[in-house]
Amino acid sequence: MVKKRALAPAKKAAKPRTQRQRSDATVAALVRAARARFAANGYAATALDDILTDVGMTRGALYHHFENKAALFRAVFEEQQKRLAAAVSAAAGAAAARGAWPGFRAGCEAFLEACLEPATQRILLIDAPSVLGWEAMREIESRYVVALLRAGLQRALDAGALAPRPVEPLADLLMGGLAECARSIARAKQPRTAMLDARRELDRLLRALARQ
């Protein structure tokens, strides 16, 4: 007697994406393609038509989400800030088992090391000042790396790794120094050497702060 094979249950049809999901997917694709182009060629040498060709979209689709190339660059800048903040946070978290201050130091070192990445160099350090301006850059940075810096200092203060002091001015001083080192690394003939020199000076500075 031949046994009848059980029929496999019918697969449920995938739910159609909502308008919001389609819009988010379009924006993500544009930002991803633009990031690759801006990182490789720089803002000035990147044409919108090249980005649109990469994603197979029309100018109408682009302008539905972004006013112009500068607005698209701003979105790319924020995406790169997220990536940088994620690298800093991961390094700080990995070292946090040794204490709040080692975690803070590891995060600062990760920031400098990230400045060797071509996308970070080109987008955040070379093109952004002229494309976005200081105010727009600062507003975005304040939500990512600067926020991590302040939070790390606060944890170190709460843990007693630093003498009591106001967080804001110390965070501004350290962020200013890190940002200037980052720009120097991006423009150096030997970026890795510049980064290692900056890390050594950063280590001396943070060890001195911890002794106060």
SSE topology:
Elements: H1 19-41, H2 48-55, H3 59-65, H4 69-95, H5 100-114, H6 118-131, H7 134-141, H8 145-158, H9 167-187, H10 191-211
Radius of gyration of CA atoms, rounded to a whole number:
23 Å
Write out the CATH superfamily name of the domain at 70-211.
Tetracycline Repressor, domain 2
**Helix count?**
10
Low-confidence stretches: none
**Bulk shape:** globular
Q: Order of SSEs, N→C?
A: HHHHHHHHHH
**β-strand number:** 0
Please estimate the helix content.
over 70%
Q: Would you state the CATH class of the domain at 70-211?
A: Mainly Alpha
Look at the structure and give the mean pLDDT: 91
Oligomer: single chain
**Strand pairing plus helix content: what structural class?**
mainly alpha
What proportion of the residues form beta strands (DSSP E)?
Answer: under 5%
What's the main sheet like? none
CATH architectural category of the domain at 70-211: Orthogonal Bundle
Instruction: Quote the CATH topology of the domain at 70-211.
Output: Tetracycline Repressor, domain 2
End-to-end separation in angstroms reads 88 Å
Features:
Tetracycline Repressor, domain 2; mainly alpha; 212 residues; globular; 75% helix
Describe the structure in your own words.
This protein has 212 residues and is mainly α. The protein has a domain at 70-211: Tetracycline Repressor, domain 2. The chain is 75% helix and 0% strand. It has ten helices and no strands. Helix 1 (19-41) packs across helix 4 (69-95) and helix 4 crosses helix 6 (118-131). The radius of gyration is 23 Å and the shape is globular. The model has no long low-confidence stretch (mean pLDDT 91).
